[in-house]
Write a structure and sequence with these properties.
Blueprint lengths: L3 H16 L3 E3 L26 H9 L2 H7 L2 E5 L5 H10 L6 E4 L4 H9 L6 E3 L15 H8 L14 E5 L5 H8 L2 E4 L9 E4 L17 E6 L3 E11 L5 E11 L5 E7 L6 H16 L4 E10 L4 E7 L6 H5 L1 H8 L2 E10 L3 H10 L2 E8 L4 E10 L2 H12 L2
Parallel strand pairs: 1-2, 1-4, 2-3
Antiparallel strand pairs: 5-8, 6-7, 6-8, 9-10, 9-12, 10-11, 11-14, 12-13, 14-16, 15-16
Length: about 400
């Protein structure tokens, strides 16, 4: 790879050329409650049933991407606005237009999105009620690329897997008697739409799991030594730029908890090459923007790509803010989320900073409950997680 300084400068230049003049709408659609489901439902998505306070905070995670690229940002008006001033001051970036929308009113934000110029809107997942011509990437292409059943289109280094129709689920008991497997819905993020089955008794976890799908991916369970995430930028000339990599912290049930982002450490050559080659395949299909891949390394040293993330992810801001974060945190930076009671946003910020951390973004409710995403450093993966656990107690 290029030297670090040249690589980072090249990345920032390409990021601005790719996103400046466009707009980021970084809210996953709410479909379970019908809020973002159109009359013609083209784009299903597996949700975790999150509260409004979590949805607003998750959306704000990507404000640094807008600021560092010069893109406009669609921001829920329910979020504390002072965090825009705080973040722009820290980054020294003040050029991103902020368009406010009411997160409780689906018509308000879809009308806002539909009023934007053609080919200007970047999203995490396409919406039924946003016109196709507004998207920077074709929404059908974006939906196809993030469909987990299409993972084989990017790489052949994947676990053994098969797509099953759910006309009859009795086959699962026979499979689980022989080996541990992971069940995946074809769309979703952060472990939503995923179940790990290690024995027939785990079939009890599936009550209601199949209610909104007609097919399911059954994938061999990989006992992972490392759970990596690696990201690249595909610019408008189809050039591939390395962004960063980290290790994901997951529950025993496969749910995403957080990620340790490495700001200085480089990925192993094989990990980098697998991710880069997969990104090249995505570029050939016509997508431009940020892409990532979740890649396991087992105890025998074999790599397996397990999920495509053809969009920015929670780790993206930390990688892009590398120059601002390293003086405070060093190489290993944990990014996670938690809640706390406070009287103001500044009180939350002070609580976290007193424990050696930094608030990336937040949202709040009238009862004084704040949901925030924060960062804290460590000398390595375990130390960063340990320091985050101390912050969670404030």
């Amino acid at each position: 790879m290029e030297t670090e300084t040249i690589q980072q400068k090249s990345l920032m230049k390409a990021l601005e050329e790719t996103y400046k003049g466009s707009y980021l709408f970084m809210k996953y659609p709410e479909l379970v409650n019908g809020k973002d489901k159109g009359d013609t439902h083209k784009y299903p998505f597996a949700e975790g049933g999150y509260s409004d306070i979590t949805i607003v905070a998750e959306t704000l995670r990507f404000l640094p991407l807008a600021m560092m690229s010069g893109a406009g940002f669609l921001m829920p008006m329910q979020a504390p606005e002072e965090q825009v001033t705080n973040l722009s001051g820290m980054l020294g970036k003040h050029d991103s237009p902020i368009l406010l929308y009411d997160n409780s009113n689906a018509k308000h934000y879809t009308d806002l999105a539909n009023s934007l110029p053609e080919k200007s809107l970047h999203v995490l997942h396409p919406y039924d009620n946003i016109a196709p011509e507004v998207y920077a990437n074709d929404p059908d292409l974006l939906f196809m690329l993030n469909d987990k059943s299409n993972l084989h289109l990017f790489t052949d280094q994947i676990p053994q897997r098969q797509l099953f129709s759910l006309q009859d689920t009795n086959f699962l008991e026979d499979i689980v008697k022989q080996k541990a497997v992971v069940l995946k819905k074809t769309e979703g993020s952060a472990g939503d739409g995923l179940k790990i089955l290690k024995s027939p008794k785990d079939l009890a976890k599936l009550n209601g799991f199949f209610s909104d799908v007609s097919q399911i991916i059954v994938e061999d369970y990989i006992e992972a030594n490392h759970n990596y995430s690696i990201q690249f930028l595909i610019d408008k000339s189809n050039e591939i730029h390395y962004i960063g990599f980290g290790e994901q912290f997951m529950t025993s049930e496969g749910e995403y908890e957080g990620v340790v982002c490495y700001l200085e450490k480089e990925p192993e050559h094989e990990l980098f090459t697998i991710g880069q080659n997969a990104a090249k395949k995505v570029a050939e299909m016509g997508y431009h923007g940020i892409v990532g891949f979740d890649i396991l390394k087992d105890f025998q040293g074999e790599y397996y790509v397990i999920d495509p993330n053809i969009r920015p992810t929670a780790a993206t801001p930390a990688f892009l803010m590398k120059d601002s974060l390293m003086p405070f945190f060093g190489d290993a930076v944990y990014l996670g989320s938690t809640s706390t009671k406070a009287n103001s946003t500044q009180e939350v910020i002070q609580k976290v900073e007193n424990k050696g951390g930094m608030v990336l973004c937040m949202s709040n409710q009238d009862n004084g409950l704040y949901k925030y995403f924060g960062l804290v450093g460590g000398i390595d993966y375990q130390d960063a997680i340990s320091n985050w656990e101390k912050i969670e107690k404030v």
